[in-house]
Amino acid sequence: MRPTNEPVKSAAGPADKSKVWRKRTAAWSRWLHLYLSMLSFLVVLFFAVTGLTLNHVEWFDGQQTERKATGTLPAAWVNTPDTAAIKKLQVVERLRQNYHVQGSVSDFIVEDDQCAVSFKGPGYSADAFINRHDGTIKLTEQRQGLVAVLNDLHKGRDSGAKWSWVIDVSAGFLTLVSLSGLAMLFFLKNKRANGLLVALVGGALCYLLYALWVP
To answer: What is the pLDDT of residues 41-57, one digit of tens each?
Structure first.
């Protein structure tokens, strides 16, 4: 068998491994950026729109509605010298059942002559004042409108622990979208320098606006 002049193939060297790593990193960056962007699209839209409405709340004045109601509950629930014996749970459930109040209980204040119960939710509040002597109720409920609901969801105000978790997850997604986009830029040789320059200029511009316009 005659010897061949073909070069003997050797194992991949460090340069080949580095090239493979770059290709895989670029592919994963594109994949992450594409699908996370699609997954986060509505999140970005929500926070963009509500960022605008938060900055111009005066555009939506006049959407607030107010409802007043009166009633009674068993005086024995609140008319007791021992304030620890006041039936707070029953009081709250009666208000929810009979007056359809929403949100979570933010305050239950016991005073000498009355109990004050406050409910808070996104764009919503309700305050009930209960006479401790005879159990009469005076309720005031305020609804701020749809835009106020969205604004409070943006801020995570009066929206509960589960919605706070949603905001945290959304922030994580948007961070990954930003980082994967930046990683992609490093693999685009023709646009890398200009892209990084634009990013630096954008960051410097934001800082300049902050330094000049924020008291």
So the answer is: 888 899 999 999 999 98
